[in-house]
Amino acid sequence: MINSPLFCNGGETKLVETFNTSEIIADYKNMNIDVQRFFKEDSILLYECVRTGYRFYYPFSTIGDAKFYDDLSKDRNNYYSHRWEHKIALNYINKSDSVLEIGSGFGVFLNLLKQKKIKAKGLELNPHAVKQCKSQGLDVKEALIQQEALQLKNAYSIICYFQVLEHITEVHDFIKSSLDTLKKDGKLIIGVPNNNPYLFINDKYHTLNLPPHHAGLWNKKSLKSLETIFPLKLEEITFEPLVKTYSYFLNFQINNSNVLVKIILKTLNKLIPRILKKVLCKFIKGRNVLVVFKKTI
Predict the structure, then answer these.
(1) What is the overall mean pLDDT for the chain?
(2) Which domains does the chain have, with CATH numbers?
(3) Engineered SS bond to 85: which of 8, 20, 60, 290, CB 3.0-4.6 Å?
(4) Which residues contact 153 (CB under 8 A, 6 or more apart)?
(5) pTM
(6) Are 11 and 49 in contact (CB under 8 A)?
(7) In what order do the strands lie in the sheet with 55-58?
(8) pLDDT tens-digit readout, 175-228
(9) Three-state DSSP class for 99?
(10) In the 8-state DSSP scheme, what is residue 61?
């Protein structure tokens, strides 16, 4: 039986999807990235945690290593870039806070904190990114949060990670270690792709939402469930406005929907494009979500 990685002592799961590995390998090859070494079988599986709704790919050996992320960051200039959630997260951080960012990339968010004279440090596993951060005078080291937790307990008032949690296989240990370094009443700020409604449901073979890049799929339900597993209280959940990725969303729907939906969308986009955009952006959430928790003990 495959246990849910959200629990330290197992958790019931169910199989929800099977993916053809040859198709995944081919899609990454189109991005000039060789991922064949990660796939030993003809297919990979997607399981769902029955209690929380968290979905994760299996086996875990298909998830990327340091070389994969180094290759990806070199091939995609915008991989570590300014993100919608950075600006939102700043609203929850004060000048008196001590911040640890896990997965600092090239230091985009740390630089925003530096500009505001907020004390912050970062952890990053990509040696190329760590070197870039240090060259900017940022306090970043190549280490796991589990290592940091062994040395520093209750040290930070803010722990944050943006576009990181979806890459983690040992989810329970990762979050627990994060909280071990966080002070009581401190904030845990998490930004991840929103896999409800369309990033997975309508685009399940979206290359960068599959292994080796992503290990798990998060949505409102699974994120909110964290407060039932860890000493956390959910304070805020915010979705990126669809307007920021509207063109991608509309084009994908037109190209991949059934004939009737395709005709309707094309017609409306031709006759009343502004109204169509306004309606869709009002009722459909965007592709990223930010949650803010408070540590309760």
Answers:
(1) 92
(2) 66-193+228-240+286-295 (3.40.50.150), 243-283 (no CATH)
(3) 290
(4) 180, 181
(5) 0.92
(6) yes
(7) 13-20, 43-49, 55-58, 216-217
(8) 999 999 999 999 999 999 998 644 545 677 888 889 999 999 999 999 999 999
(9) strand
(10) G
- The whole-number pLDDT of residue 80 equals 61
Cβ–Cβ contacts within 10 Å for residue 116, how many?
A: 12
pLDDT of residue 198: 45
Nearest of 23, 35, 22, 43 to residue 63 by alpha carbon: 35
Half-sphere exposure of 18 (CA within 13 A, CB side): 4
For residues 241-264, average pLDDT: 89
Q: What is the pLDDT of residues 133-159, one digit of tens each?
A: 999 999 999 999 999 999 999 999 999
Return d(Cα 267, Cα 169) in angstroms, integer: 44
Inter-residue contact 60 to 169 (CB < 8 Å): yes
Q: How far is CA 190 from the centre of its chain?
A: 8
DSSP letter for 245, please: G
Residues listed for the chain: 297
Q: Cβ(105)–Cβ(132) under 8 Å?
A: no
As a dihedral over the C-alpha atoms of residue 164, residue 169, residue 171, residue 177, rounded to 10 degrees, the angle is -80
Give dist(CA 178, CA 160) in Å, integer. Answer: 9
Q: Which two tokens mark 124? A: 């990053």
Which SS3 state, helix, strand or coil, does residue 31 take? coil
Q: What is the DSSP string of 175-228?
A: HHHHHHTEEEEEEEEEEEE-TTTTTTTS-TT-GGGSTTT-SEE--HHHHHGGGG
Nearest to 62 by CA among 30, 125, 32, 20: 20
